[in-house]
Amino acid sequence: MFPPLTIGQLHIGVPLVQAPLSGYSDAPMRRLAREFGASFALCEVFLDQFVLNVSKKSKARFYLAVQDADKPTGAQLMGSSSEEFVPAALKLLECGFDLIDLNFACPVKKVVGRSRGGYLISNPRKAVEIARRVREAVPSAIPVTVKLRKGYDDSEGSRVDFFELLSGLLDVGIDGIAVHGRTVLQRYQGVADWDFVREVKEFVSVKRNCPAVSVLGCGDLFAAETVIRRMRESGVDGVALARGIIGNPWLFTQVRAAMEDRPIPGPPTLREQKETIGKHFQAALDLYGEARATTIMRKFGVAYSKLHPESEKVRISFVLCKTSKRWFEILDEFY
Question: Which residues contact 25 (CB under 8 A, 6 or more apart)?
């Protein structure tokens, strides 16, 4: 139903991507996303200073390790200066990542306050310089992409800044852009503006005549039918699923079936949920060890519980869970 997605020289295939999700899209989640139908997955956003300073003997093995089964996979970077963006990007390539994504979109107040993430939408000249330096430093075969929001706010000045930034990114040779149809100040309030996403796609492909630059849309994609409708309306080259797949990797299967013009599977049964949640926990256990895995997986348990008919009881049980033994007892009790 939709052409295969290519970003730069990287062939993705079905235009269905797992977006980078801060605090969530670690290796176990990314592998699960690929298993359920995502053609490409990006890790949670890395602060450039973290990448440069992390020790190979500590957190690096949790966050920077890339296995053959993960590929192709991308890494998202966030920071405030090209002096740190560039060496951090090169280090991520050494770790085995196949794509570098620059975060100019994060709406978190402390991030913006430190001139990172969404702040850079309001400073097009600085943002373009960062993108230019990274694009020049990274080998041409490696795609460099950018995550953007609709603007910093809804003012006309912010709109001017956005298209100045977008033009500059196209000039420096960015390979792809992911656009969330909300402003930085909106965060996740209100409704994502897919008319704006369509406008961005038309600007890139028609006005600037850059059809090789891939445009992905994101925002409010919680059902397969919605994804298909938004892709048709906006003309984007692909979609990046974010909040909709936390605790619901079955959405990937449903969207992929719709994209391939197959019947959309129904919601997962309790047995299917149990199998997937157990597999997810075991992957985290293998990577992080007992104490760390249980702590990290609580938020996933809360998300998974939303699909259960006794969601409140299941949610509380996962929140109170402190051991792997108890985790599997919860699965036996409720699933």
Answer: 18, 19, 33, 41, 42, 43, 44
With residues binned 3-state (H G I as helix, E B as strand, rest as coil), the percentages for the chain, rounded to 5, are: 50, 15, 35
DSSP 8-state code for residue 264:
P
Pairing of strands 16-18, 10-13: unpaired
Residue type, 302: V
Half-sphere exposure of 61 (CA within 13 A, CB side): 8
Structure tokens at 269: 């049964």
> What is the C-alpha to C-alpha distance for residues 20 and 41, in angstroms, rounded to an integer?
7
Backbone angles phi, psi at 24, to 5 degrees: -125, -50
Residue matched to tokens 């007892």: 329
Convert the pLDDT of each residue in 8-44 to its tens digit. 999 999 999 999 998 899 999 999 999 999 999 999 8
- Kindly state the greatest CA–CA separation across the chain: 58
Give the residue from 132, 123, 127, 244 showing the smallest Cα distance to 180: 244
Are residues 32 and 279 in contact, defined by beta-carbon separation less than 8 angstroms?
A: yes
Exposed e or buried b per residue across 11-35, where buried means at least 16 C-beta atoms within 10 angstroms of its C-beta: ebebbbbbbbbeebbbbbbbbbbbe
Spatial CB neighbours of 77, under 8 Å, sequence gap ≥ 6: 45, 46, 48, 51, 85, 88, 89, 92, 100, 101, 102, 103
Contacts of 309 (CB under 8 A, 6+ apart): none
Residues annotated as part of the active site:
106
- pLDDT tens for 203-249 read 999 999 999 999 999 999 999 999 999 999 999 999 999 999 999 99
